[in-house]
Structures are given as structure tokens and as C-alpha cells.
Amino acid sequence: MVFVWFLHLLSLVVWLGGMAFFSFLAAPSIFLVLAPEEAGRVVASIFTKYYWAGYVCGPVAFLTALVAGTAGARFTGLKLFLLAIMMIAFFYAGLWIRPRVASLKQELKETTDVSIVADLKGRFEKNHRNAVL
Predict the structure, then answer these.
(1) Could you tell me how many helices (H) and strands (E) the chain has, helices first?
(2) Is the torsion defined by CA of 30, 31, 33, 39 positive or negative?
């Protein structure tokens, strides 16, 4: 059971710690130091690994909480509920919103029509904000 708890805590630390590090330290620093176009490419490259870490760590955290819960851990129902909500939000951001943001970003690069650019920027910013939340 010690290994299950270790795996549970490790998955939470990697998942949540990675989110906090990327959101509050890495991304702001990258956009501060590099030009917006270069920073966007760096962040996009990191996102692939960032989301894969969540796709692995979320289910591992959920399954290990489930296993630990069957062994009598406290507040198991609440933990499983919160982990399920977190996974749903993370998978939604990674599998639904992220591809839309990438598509809008590509359209912005290829479009020169000012009226279309304004609409694309608005949609990009709305989707980006939703992914961050």
C-alpha cells in the first residue's frame, strides 16, 4: 500500500506541479524573454509534453486513489470526485480546446483580411482563456 500512496502522490506532484510551474514561471518567462512568435513556438512545443504528462498522471492519480480508497482511506469519494473533475477539465482543454487554438493560430498566420483577423483574434483569445481556466 505504501507504493500505491507513493505513486498517487508522485502523479499529483508531477501533474499539479507541472501546471503551476508552466503557468506561473515558465510561460511568463518565455514570453518575457523571446519575441512573441518565437515564444509561441517554444510554448507550443512544451504543450505536447505538458498535456501527455497530464494524460498519464491524471488517470494514475485517480486509479491509485481508487485503490487506496478500497483499503479504507479517508475522504475517498471526495478525492475521486475532484480528480474526475480535474481530469475532465484537463482532457477537454488538451483534446478539444488546444487543437482549436492551434487551428485559429494557423489561420491568423495565413490571413491578411483585417475583418477576418479581428474575428480570429477574438476567437483565439476566448479559446486560450478557456484552456487556461
Answers:
(1) 6, 0
(2) positive
